[in-house]
Amino acid sequence: WTFGLILKTVCKAAVAWEPKKPLSIEDVDVAPPKAHEVRIKVIATGMCHTDWEYLYQAGKATRLRPFPLVLGHEGAGIVESVGPGVTKFSPGDKVIPLFLPQCGECERCLSPKTNQCRKNWANTQVGVMADGTSRISYMGQQVYQCLGVGSFSQYTVVSDISLAKISREAPLDKVCLLGCGVSTGYGAAVNACKVEKGSSCAVFGLGAVGLAAVMGCRAAEAKRIIAVDVNPDKFEKAQMFGATDCVNPKDHSRPIQEVLLEMTGGGVDYALECVGSPAVMTAALESTTDGWGTCVIAGWTETETMSVVVEKILMGRNLKGTYFGDWKSVESVPKLVDDYMNNKLKLDEFITHNLPLDQINRAFEYMKSGESIRTVISLW
């Protein structure tokens, strides 16, 4: 076959035409991949809380992510075609598209200090490819791709540095979760916090990111893992992932950080914030012990401001953030898939609902009501 024979394809996609409105299933055109791009047949995608944020909390961030928009950044699929210059992927490969690239050549990729490659970053943040345009359109109108991915479409096109080739045996309706939430929470514990054996931890928020953080704390052999959430229905699941204690802030008249300080005799060694709430971030920091306590922010928010009492930092606490769990995306995601295949990592347990693409708006309802941890959307 030749590049000249690759044509645009027509497929179903869930399009967000404007903020705060339900998604609409449309027949969209997906253009052929250009140089260093890959077109993917998306088999399954998770719905992440960030998708909900971009749609329903769209405020200042709307300037960054114009509409119409195909959301979704937690997908898995099969390579359908490749553009000129692509050497690492072939049609038929199983892959996970990545909202965080890894070019392997820039200063950040070559440094062990960060995973935050910035190649094509500015463009993907506004939903376009390296050339400034999207590959998805509707009746000639450009439709933007969330974070350069847009996995709520049966086909999408991504950069070849934003793609991980994975095991041919991997179940795509499970490993799609490694495209964002599970990797972020698990990495927040094992990479960003570097949780130590025998330590004490508190995880704030028991969505997919928080439960994955609990799983990471357990993998690191923490002695005590305190799960914190206002929804007690999530406690049983948290204990299954490794939590030793579960605390509902609504059960206490005092601030939750004071409760945790008393429970632990001075504070936890590690606190992980997995909500994206500035108030919870402050509580997480203040729940750590002075001298060496570390608080890692994994919950996503773009426009909020966190309040920090300077004395809390002066007394030796560490406050840091993590993006995609500090994983080097292209090289790490295939290893995480292998860990799942070898029963070293849980994924099935995160999935509470499975829905077809035409019922995708129900997934937002499940998320808003707190019924779901992860809903996986089947696109075919």
From TrEMBL:
Known cofactor(s)? Zn(2+)
Q: Where is the Alcohol dehydrogenase-like C-terminal domain?
A: 208-333
Q: Which residues form a coiled coil?
A: none
Which one of the record's GO molecular function terms can you name? Answer: S-(hydroxymethyl)glutathione dehydrogenase [NAD(P)+] activity
Residue intervals of the Alcohol dehydrogenase-like N-terminal domain: 35-166
User: One GO cellular component from the entry?
Assistant: cytosol
Q: Which domain of life is it from?
A: Eukaryota
Which GO terms are recorded in the biological process aspect for this UniProt protein? formaldehyde catabolic process
Q: InterPro entries from the entry?
A: ADH-like_C, ADH-like_N, ADH_Zn_CS, GroES-like_sf, NAD(P)-bd_dom_sf
Task: Tell me the protein family, please.
Answer: Belongs to the zinc-containing alcohol dehydrogenase family. Class-V subfamily.
Please state what the protein is called.
Alcohol dehydrogenase 6
Organism whose genome encodes this protein? Cyclopterus lumpus (Lumpsucker)
